[in-house]
Amino acid sequence: MVYAGENTLSALGRMVLILWLFVVLIINSSYTASLTSILTVQKLYSPIKGIDSLMASKEPIGYQENSFVRNYLIAEYGIDKDRLIPLSLPEDFEKALRDGPNHGGVAAVVDERAYLELFLSTRCDFSIVGQEFTKNGWGFAFPQDSPLAADISTAILKLSENGELQRIHDK
Question: Chief localization class (predicted)?
Answer without folding.
Answer: membrane
